[in-house]
Amino acid sequence: MNNQHSLETIELEMAVLVRRLTTITSDKKNWPLDRSAYLLLHQLYIDGSSGVKFLADEFQLDISTVSRQAAALEQKGYVIKVPDPTDGRAYFYQITDSGTKVLLENKQARLDRLTEVLNEWSDEECESFGELLKKFNESSMRKK
After folding, report:
1. 138 — phi, psi (to 5°)?
2. The pLDDT of residue 39
3. CATH C-level class of 32-142
4. Per-residue pLDDT for 100 more than 80?
5. pLDDT per residue over 2-21, tens digit each?
6. Alpha helix locations (H) across 3-122?
7. Residues 87-98: pLDDT tens digits?
8. How far, in whole angstroms, is CA 36 from its chain's centroid?
9. SS3 for 33?
10. Element (H, E) at 84
11. CA nearest 50: which of 58, 87, 78?
12. pTM of the predicted model, to two decimals?
C-alpha cells in the first residue's frame, strides 16, 4: 500500500507545509502564540486543568520541556498553578481568562488565514483534508 512515490510525495509536501506554517505564524502581531503555547493552551481549554505528566504524555515531550513551556505561559498570566486536592505536593495548570482570550484570538486568526488559503476548495475537499490530517496525527501518536 505504501509505494515509494507516494511516500516521497508525502514527505516533501509535509516539509513544505511545515515551512509555510512557520512563515505564516512568525508574524507576532497576528500570531502572538507560538505553536507550543497554542497547543498547550488549547489542551487546557478543552480538557480543563491538567498535570505536567499528563501534558507531557499528551504531547510526547519531556516533563521538563512542558514545565518550561507552562512556566512561560504562567509568567504571561495565561495559566495558573492550582493545587492537586489529592496530593498536596502536586499541582495542575489551569488556563486563565487572559489565556482563553489570547487562545481564541489566535485561533480566529488561524481560521481566517485558512479561510483565505482554502477559499477555492469545496466543502468536501476541506472535510477530506481535515479527516486525513486527523488520521495522520492519530497514527503518528500510536507510533511513539
Report:
1. -65, -40
2. 94
3. mainly alpha
4. yes
5. 788 888 998 999 899 888 87
6. 4-24, 35-47, 52-59, 63-75, 97-117
7. 878 899 999 999
8. 6
9. coil
10. strand 79-84
11. 58
12. 0.83
